[in-house]
Amino acid sequence: CDINRTRVLVMLAVTSEFRFMVLWSHSTKTKMAVLLLEADIVVLGSPKPEEIPLSWIQPGTTVLNCSLGLLCNSHPFHDVTSLNGIFVVYIPCHSAFTCITCFPFCPLKNMVSSGRRWLREQQHARWRLHCLKLQPLSPVPSDLEISRAQTPKAVEVLAKEIGLLADEIEIHGKSKAKVRLSLLERLKDQADGKYVLVAGITPTPLGEGKSTVTVGLVQALTAHLNINSFACLRQPSQGPTFGVKGGAAGGGYAQVIPMEEFNLHLTGDIHAITAANNLLAAAIDTRILHENTQTDKALYNRLVPSVNGIREFSSIQLARLKKLGINKTDPNALTEEEIGKFARLNIDPSTITWQRVLDTNDRFLRKITIGQAPTEKGYSRQAQFDIAVASEIMAVLALTDSLVDMKERLGRMVVASDKNGQPVTAEDLGVTGALTVLMKDAIKPNLMQTLEGTPVFVHAGPFANIAHGNSSVLADKIALKLVGEEGFVVTEAGFGADIGMEKFFNIKCRASGLVPNAVVLVATVRALKMHGGGPSVTAGVPLKKEYTEENIQLVADGCCNLKKQIQIAQLFGVPVIVALNVFKTDTRAEIDLVCELAKRAGAFDAVPCYHWSIGGKGSVELARAVRDAANKGSRFRFLYDVQLPIVEKIRTIAQAVYGARDIELSPEAQSKIDRYTQQGFGNLPICMAKTHLSLSHQPDKKGVPRDFILPISDVRASIGAGFIYPLVGTMSTMPGLPTRPCFYDIDLDTETEQVKGLF
Predict the structure, then answer these.
(1) For the chain, which terminus, N or C, has the lower number of CB atoms within 10 Å?
(2) How does it assemble (predicted)?
């Protein structure tokens, strides 16, 4: 056929195994699509390869891409990749004809076979992971010393080992990388692995080691049982890191490395959230100021200015016009009434729920007055700061499943009501696009590794007592694809099972559609003694002798809390394995008693764990128990129907999970519930903001409090994230610093530039 007359030349070599096609020129789209669907090998020489949709090519096809447009310094000779199950080889030929003369059919046939084998390996192979060796010392050094003693693999090496392609990661330094969401499209046909949640009993203020158990478990699964596994952890806030609790990278010989990078800025996600949150806060108060000081016409002229003689609406302004029912696109065509409707949001300052945030514990920002400078023309109001990880934008990041979904969620965030009682959103303020720009990199999960060289995603970091307390849906979904059908993804929920686990099931699993296979419930002898009537535990104060000497009675009495947390997990139909995080002061009798009582309470198994002192080897028995429980299958179910009234959902959680007799709503809480119901938000799940130190609202009530009334002091709505947010008792969303914060011990060696004092 004549190429110059834009006809198609099809060279079809048929054997018993393959069909081979070379397509030149510009056929009709329909004809070309049909021909491509029949091919096993396609040689692409088009100067505009983007005009050929991937949907025209069958999965399993080998594409020899000779397109100069795709070569342009982006692909080396014979670089290979996979797109939607299609094996693509980039070859620097100047034409498809040159490619055919250079590659006779037999080598091409071999290339197809190799390509199909490579695709199968990418989707189903057990990782060829080079695990790092541990040399545990006794006594166990500090977390920072252990972290520094291990040399992590280069992150690009780790990425390749777990099946990531070179163009699917963005490297940050030597040991961190962001993973692009395009991976989900490439692996969309890959079966998910098993999904395991790590939760805990009601903790002491010191924490009971859920992150340590999570890391120890994946080290055991991957490095010692040769099972693909991924840990998914939250990014820690710098508030606790410099406050009282310290870092959250795990501990001992079960931690994420480098721990100082993990615990400090990581890749800047929390800073991006802070910037986006405070941009929106600034937009709210500024809009009120300008509406209070300008006429409709002046306000409209500034919102829709004439630039070089041209006046037009931005895309987000066109969306607002559509929402208002104004079907016009010419700014000069609006009537005076329409100009007023468009230009004025009429925000009621008393209804503003959006607060500024900071990633530092600062009690003096819990209540402030803003707008006191004369330039603000007398507009002032009471406001507050929250800790950055309590921002709704953090919750949006943790619950979104794509960039498109994140943008929609950011636009839906309700910041206040107008004077007619209708919700005002970020979209109404015109800031959605700017927020998305600030968050475009934060949405990509961060890849790191454990001490034994196994992979970890660190992404999102909402607190569990004042937010929903779980790492991101996206990290979990990507990890589940990477581990493959026989692998495991282990994710962690904050604080006790009554808080983080309940929200994981009722909020995160609803948003993601993922079904958990098992729950690991972390307990310590120390915490059980506290619940059994032991003296109070205070961070920074040495433990009393009751905690360092054997006391069987205290342990037995405290197991009431363990039993209650097992029962809470069973409400959701998921098998429970108790992981007893063993401390050096625990005795064999105490350990055996806890495991026995846990099994009697209905746990699938109960296993003592020693990962803190010896690494993954110390959690092999836990790993085996988790594997057996996950293979048993779960009968997962939600605790409540979201269509129930808000009050009934709150009552269900209070009674079934916390053990309360009933709830008591303050007038303000009832008013907010009525408003949110009237605005159409009554069918959202509930995210309780409650102390993590007790099953009740009173931190000093240990064990299993009974017959109490749970007070609901306020209710907020996180519409973008997708939940209603009741505050229990006097819950604060901005922590404070203790008398002696952790920062006293944190320093920098100015010679070596090494951080000291983190734990």
Answers:
(1) N
(2) Homodimer.
